[in-house]
Give the backbone structure.
Amino acid sequence: MSSSDVEEKTEEEKAALKAVREARKAEKELAKAAKKAKKAAAQAEKEEAERILPVTYLSAEDQDQYDPFGDYTLVMSRSETGRDFSKVVDLGTEHVAGDKVWLRGRLQSIRVKGGSCFLVLRQDSFHTVQAIYFKDKEQPEMSQKMIKYLKSLTEESIIDIEGTLVDAEVRSCSVQNVEISIARIHSVSAAAAQLPFLVEDAARSEEEVEASQDTDRPFPRLGQELRLDNRWMDLRVPANNAIMRVQSAICQLFRESLYSQGFVEIHTPKLIAGESESGAGVFTTDYFGTTACLAQSPQLYKQMAISSDLNRVFEVGPVFRAEKSHTRRHLCEFTGLDLEMAIDDHYMETLEVIHEMFKHIFNGLETRFSKELEVIREQYASEPVTFTDEPCVLHWPEAMEILKEKGFELGDGMGDLTGAMELALGEVVKEKYGADFFMLDKYPSSIRPFYTMPDPEDSRYSNSYDIFIRGMEICSGAQRCHDPELVVKLMEEKGIEAGEGLQSYVDSFRHGISPHAGAGIGLERVVFLYLGLDNVRKASMFPRDPNRCTP
């Protein structure tokens, strides 16, 4: 038998060998796939075990069924949970060590390291408390997931915390005698990881920022436009938030004083057929095929209220001025605090009412809102406004003499005051009378609106007045001309036509009206000057100026 016969295999044998090899290969592949699947299953099981699930919190009675961490599903008023949320400001006083509490607030800061976590919860902008978490050796897996979740939280998120108060000494928070030992924490609304700026940076005073510039770690300067573009963030800053609360307080105190003096609050139209007064631009709009404008003031309507036998009225409402004034004290929309009242003999009756009202505001701010003022003055330094017990009134001729002595060129002395002149008068009044708050009356008629009553002795002057804080005007007012023929004459002298809106105004005088006087006060300017701020935009929630109509 030849060697070739021995070596050669039949086709059947070759096929059998090939089948064996393929079977072995398939077996290996199956084993490999099984191993891979087992590994994937183990990884999936691990990931599932570590996955932090959303929490739909429906009831405090059932909370043991919920994980003690995880983002809430969207709060959509599914149920009333029965939880009793506490206020941070009450911790350490009404709630003491050993008490269990629920809190909701902003995550101001968080630091997670190893098996521990320290965070600060902020409420109402300036109440803060520290919360802590330490890994539980008896529940290592649960603790690991809690630490993982804490690491995922972003600053400025809204969070809920349940925990037990424990004694502590925490100097960096407003609550300094207790802190919260966290048992449960959930994100209610997550903030983006990248914010326009940090609230911490926005809360520094200009002096702090300036002093840091020559150090290794200078603090960032946040420009006004960046702040205003993200105003909701800027208003989280304790001082800026407190400014809005002071603005609210001034409205409250304004109302309190006038209600106590027999006034009625009214609400006048803001869409009108003609300009409210001369000398200021208006915003116009289409009104069903005719042109209307946004009211520059409630002036005409509060006077018509006097004709309606509402003898003492006030209003808190928006005022619109289409003036391209790019200054630190002008806005295109602001809140007007307006008042009008019938007088018996003399407009001094109105000045006395206004003086009493401002005294109530100034005293009320310093006594009832001292906490807010303290927070503001930590970032924006100022002193309380000083004022006299009785009205401090300068007359126009006296003011002109003061300004001459200060070296101002006054011409015939009948022109309006510049900002520098107002500041100079403020300095003299402060030095002479010890007052930041004063009144100046008898303005020239030529620089006052048509409805201003002329001075009875010299018609070149008028029974009008402005009121100042720290040498800047906050209020303009006058005895109004209530004689219809004289009103028409004054309108003609100023080149004003009695259109549809003004005709109704004049007619209200033709039907009989009490002598009256009043004033219009700029709320934001009062806030701005009382607090010694550098720009009126800080006193406006969402300011409107020639370059800004958003947000």
About this structure: The radius of gyration is 36 Å. The chain has a mean pLDDT of 94. The chain has 16 helices and 16 strands.
